[in-house]
Design brief:
The chain is mainly α and about 70 residues long.
Length: about 70
């Protein structure tokens, strides 16, 4: 294995993984709407347990699309 010299030229700045909300909606309002939509999806499935993550992810997709996030 070759020795690699690390310099400023070959080191990239770290990438932030967190999604920044740039819409006019507050983070709190966004989370409340996602929570409400996830619950609606749960009720739509007649309250069947076991799909909470899928409900949340679908709700997140719907709400973020609404605010174009």
């Amino acid at each position: 294995m070759a020795n690699v010299r690390i310099t400023k030229a070959n080191v990239k700045a770290p990438v932030k993984a967190a999604h920044v909300v740039t819409s006019s909606v507050s983070k709190e309002k966004l989370l409340k709407e996602i929570e409400k939509k996830a619950y609606e999806l749960y009720c739509k499935r007649n309250g069947q347990h076991g799909n909470d993550l899928n409900d949340w992810l679908e709700a997140e997709k719907v709400v973020k699309a609404k605010y174009k996030i």
